Amino acid sequence: MNFPELPEQTEQTLSFFFEDVEFDLPGEAGLRAWLTATAEAEGKTMGEINCIFCSDEHLRGINVEFLDHDYYTDIITFDYSEGSRLHGEIYISSERVADNAQTNGVSFLHELCRVMVHGILHMAGYKDKTPEDESIMRKKEDYYLTRL
């Protein structure tokens, strides 16, 4: 007996989790669509990505344990991508995002979106360790924020 071949199943999941903080994340479906469109514009497809919102102390602990950096940061991206399919974890300190939003004179949601797209861009292959790479990353963030 011959069975028809089924199309390849492609798992696509962008999930949001709250570790030790709580805040309203409006428009989750719209955020998923925007981040998926960002990946596609970069020639990538979305796989399983977990976006975990947490406190400064929680993210500093991850920074110390996994990266040997003892300082606060707004985002850490663990990239497990395979080929052009993005997979990974994006840890975001909502406290750092709130402080950066105030410093930069933008809304919390605007800065949160900047950081989320920053994580996707890291998975897509962009770096930010040199001034030149950081400039490219900022331009990409700004571009995708205009498409939100």
- What is the SS-derived class? alpha/beta
- Order of adjacent strands in the largest pleated sheet: 1-2-4-3
Number of helices: 5
How far apart the termini lie comes to: 50 Å
Percent of residues in helices comes to 40-55%
Shape: globular
List the domain count as a whole number. 1
Query: What's the level 1 CATH class?
Result: Alpha Beta
Q: Note the main sheet.
A: 4 strands, mixed
CATH topology: Collagenase (Catalytic Domain)
Structure summarized in a few sentences:
With 148 residues, the chain is α/β, with parallel strands linked by helices.
Plain-language structure description:
Helix 1 links the parallel strand 1 (13-18) and strand 2. Residues 1-9 have low confidence and may be disordered. The longest helix is centred in the last third of the chain and has 16 residues, at 108-123. The protein is built from 5 helices and 4 strands, in the order E-H-E-H-E-E-H-H-H. The protein is globular and about 35 Å long. The N and C termini lie far apart (50 Å). The protein has helices at residues 28-41, 56-67, 94-104, 108-123, 131-146; strands at residues 13-18, 45-54, 75-79, 85-93. It is α/β, with parallel strands linked by helices and 148 residues long. The protein has one domain: Collagenase (Catalytic Domain) (3-Layer(aba) Sandwich), CATH 3.40.390.30.
Topology summary:
Elements: E1 13-18, H1 28-41, E2 45-54, H2 56-67, E3 75-79, E4 85-93, H3 94-104, H4 108-123, H5 131-146
Parallel strand pairs: 1-2, 2-4
Antiparallel strand pairs: 3-4
